[in-house]
Structure formats: structure tokens, C-alpha cells
Amino acid sequence: MIYYRCMVQNNLYNRALKFELPRGQSAFLWGPRKCGKSTFLKANFKDSLRFDLLKTDSVFEYSKRPALLRERLLAMGNDPCLSRPIIIDEVQKVPQLLDEVHWLIEEKGLQFILCGSSARKLKKDHVNMLGGRAWRFEMFPLMAHEIDNFDLIIALNSGLIPSHYTSSNPRRSLKAYIQDYLIEEIRNEGLVRNFNAFSRFLDAVAFTNSEMVNFTNIASDCGVDSKTVREYFNILEDTLLGRFVYPFTKKTSRQLITKMPKFYLFDVGVANALRKRHVGELRGSEFGMSFEHFIFMELVAYRGYSEKDFEIRFWRTSTGLEVDFILGDGEVALEVKGSANIEGSMLHGLKSFQADFKPAKSIVVCCESAPRKMGEMDVIPWKHFF
Description:
Helix content: 25-40%
Strand content: 15-25%
Structural class: alpha/beta
Number of helices: 15
Shape: globular
Largest sheet: 6 strands, mixed
């Protein structure tokens, strides 16, 4: 069996995504716009036939007549290009093409890589998702270890979308991304009706990013009902622009807050740009909130690339004791502290979780200079943690 193995240089970055496909196996590759999907595929499938649905003429042509894809590929006969994966970029823009792809896989044995930034339109329209014939991969913004000479301050302010991290003017790049993608793309896809309310919702999300979500309060701020706010959050999830983190709910003697999830946007730079927050140094409350968000996205990317599929949740009691992240079924408790000097008085939540649930590992990710043990807890500098 022949495998396509793809883990090579993506411009300046050696991406951690392990894209391994047996010959004949098709795949979806999902990820937010500009996180590097197209660049990755161009680098790893240089000789593949590619259909780019970011081009408006292609969208118009295939929307009007999806069968053109089948007819054009069949007309190529025994062209060597057809022995390699055929790439369709931004496939969600013409969902009807998936019926043609399905037929070409089944009847002609062709192999496809279907790349996109949102599966929402496909799900909403009950489109053919190929019934398990395509594996699912996801690409995330950059991880720290993918960047030579990684700079945490740059990451927190510019974010980890590749072109933003290296931008000479990240503020303008982020502003353009928010306006042209977060706002205009969602408008163009027709995902919301009340666009002014959705714009207010994005502002509210930025100010509650990484905190527990109160749907009623956000609805009041946006001038819509709670049901609409929940739908807006679903849009952000389906377009890969953010994700919920739910409470860890194993029974315990303590009274827990179990209903309200937290929500994290997909990129710390985008979140800080929406909030108009700038982190100037590795200390203080502004740094602490951004640092927690950054660690969360590293966990999400590691989980996705390693295919370990562990749960990421948080723990909080009604008295305010909290642990930032609980991994798996409570095997790992992880607290994030933006401090270079960790003291026991900072870790009441982690100690309480240890007493109640006996996790296999309790970890404090922080800004200290070297790892150390603090009782049963591992205090680990963030660079060592990665």
C-alpha cells in the first residue's frame, strides 16, 4: 500500500500536521481561513490537479452546472494527474460538487482532498458528506514549536495565523481579517439576518473570551433573544472561529457550577484585536488572560494533530475555586499562571481538585525559569511544557 506522507516545510514553518493518506483514500482538510491549508497542500502535493473555489468565476461555473467537474475529469482519460489526489479548495462554496465527488470516488476510483474553512453550509443544507469515504483532518493556527525563535509577546498581540505573526503591521492585518473575513464572509454566506446584532455579538464575545458564557446577558447587550445568541455561537463553532469548553461534572461533595460553558476564539491575536487589548509585558492581568487563551489553543492543536481525542474541560465551584483545564476523564489537572514566582496561595483550586479527584498529574504552566516539584504538583515553565 502506498501512503502520501506530508510533514514538510510550509514556507518558514514546519507544520505539525501529519497528513498520511493511503492511495485511493480521500480526505477533508478543515481550518480557519489563512491558517495555512492551501500553502500546506501546494507544498506537499505540487503535481496535483487543483480547483480553487475562491475564484468567483469558478464558483459561478460549478454552481450553475456541478456536472462540469465530472465531465472535465472524465475527459482527461488516463492523464497521470488523475493518479494523484485532486484538490478542491473552499469546497463549501459549491456544496453540490460533493455528489459529483462521491460518484467519481465510487465509480472511477479517484482520490480527492477537499479543503475548506466551514462545514456549516454543508451541514445546514444536508449535503452529501461522502458517508465516511473521506477522512477528516484539521489545521490550526501555528503552534509555538513550529516557529523558530518563538516570541510569546508577538504571538499574544499578532496571533498565530502565519501571515499575521510575521506581519510588519499586525494591527492592520488583524483589522483586515476581522472586517473582511469574520464579518464580510459571514455576511456573504448568508449565515445571519440581523447583521448589526451579530457585529455587537462579536464585540461581546471578545470581552467574555475565556470566561463563562452568560447567554442572557449577551443577548441583552446585543438586542436579541438568548436563542439567537446560542445560534451565533454555533455559527462561530461551525466556521471554526471558536469553541466551547464545558465544565467537568463528576459528582463531588462540593457544589459545582455546571451549566455555563466557557468560549474561546480560535486565535489569541484575533481575540485581543477585537477587544482592543495590547499585551506589553509578561505579567499583569491582561497578560494572564491572553496567556491562558494561548495555552488552550496549544492544547487544542496538540490534541488534533496527535489524534488523542481527549476532553478539555474546566472545573469551578460555587465558592469560586477553579482549575483552568481538566484533561481526559480527570486524569490531568492543569492550571495556567502568568507568574514567574508560583506560590502555594495561588493554587487553592488545584489543591481542592487534587483532594476530591486524585488526578494522575497536576500541572502548573507558568513563566518560571526551570521545572520543579511543589508537593504533588509539577510546576513547568511554558517552554518546557510545549
